[in-house]
Design goal:
Elements lengths: L8 H21 L18 H14 L2 E10 L2 E10 L2 E7 L4 E7 L2 E6 L1 H5 L1 E2 L12 H10 L2 E4 L5 H8 L3 H8 L6 E9 L2 E8 L6 E5 L6 E5 L6 E5 L15 E3 L6 E2 L2
Parallel strand pairs: 7-13
Antiparallel strand pairs: 1-2, 1-12, 2-3, 3-4, 4-5, 5-7, 6-14, 8-9, 9-10, 10-11, 11-12
Length: 260
């Protein structure tokens, strides 16, 4: 009996097996996956110290930024939502008991709040606001309700409030990590790929840095559970306009001290 030659299916199967083996070999040689830094700005390849340096340099070179999130200080929690640039800022600060808006144009600083904010302020600084506001206090608060109050530059509150509106001061105070720096996880914030750098293995804060475009800081988890802040709108300009005369009150002396 004469053996029949193999049918057409056998060569096809052998060819398919050969192709599969070659594909597996190529995958093994290329690391079995995509390059995580493909299409990025390349900072993910750097050491943590170099990433922090590039992130700070990008922040310093930017003309504007939005800072939003929570700050925990001396047992109190504050919500911050500020747009800042070199010539000024606009936004709001919320504490447990009140919300106020801040507007700064060059050296002119304005504070805007409702009557409830002003009526709970202690005008004499003696801490006796627990006794309740007087009728005079309530009348004064009504005049300040929803008005821009110009903060005198000689007022002790001026420097403190201006700190929320000074881009360089605020970023310098926020972006520092504590402890030995190391690299953390990759992730995304607002659809943008990021790389984390950590201080003290995370105990000294964690900063997420953009892997796309400029290596801007995009999110900060502050050390000691002291709040989480997002940083965005880098380099995006926004208008700053002085309030109209009818919307402004010149307090004319030291501002009352808020109870909180």
């Amino acid at each position: 009996m004469t053996a029949l030659p193999p049918g057409p299916a056998a060569p096809v199967r052998r060819a398919a097996l050969t192709v599969a083996l070659c594909a597996a070999l190529v995958t093994a040689l290329t690391g079995c996956g995509e390059d995580p830094d493909a299409g990025t700005n390349g900072v993910g390849k750097l050491e943590a110290v170099a990433i922090e340096k590039k992130a700070k340099a990008a922040a310093e070179a930017a003309d504007a930024v939005r800072v939003a999130g929570t700050l925990v200080s001396k047992g109190g929690t504050y919500k911050l939502n500020m747009r800042l640039k070199k010539s000024g800022a606009v936004g709001s600060v919320t504490s447990k008991n009140s919300t106020f808006e801040l507007l700064r144009i060059e050296d002119a600083l304005y504070l805007k709040a409702d009557a409830g904010f002003w009526v709970h302020a202690d005008s004499d600084g003696k801490g006796d606001e627990a006794e309740g506001p007087s009728k005079e206090d309530e009348a004064a608060a009504e005049k300040l309700d929803d008005k821009y109050v110009k903060v005198p530059q000689g007022d002790p509150a001026y420097k403190q409030l201006r700190g929320f509106t000074d881009m360089d001061v605020l970023l310098d105070g926020l972006l520092g990590l504590h402890g030995k720096l190391s690299k953390g996880d990759r992730g995304t914030i607002g659809g943008v790929r990021t790389i984390e750098i950590m201080g003290g293995e995370g105990n000294g804060g964690t900063l997420a840095v953009s892997l796309e475009g400029e290596p801007y800081p995009l999110q900060l988890d502050r050390a000691g559970d002291a709040g989480v802040l997002t940083l965005g709108d880098w380099g995006q300009d926004f208008p700053l306009e002085a309030p109209a005369k009818g919307e402004t009150v010149d307090y004319g002396r030291q501002l009352p001290r808020a109870s909180d």
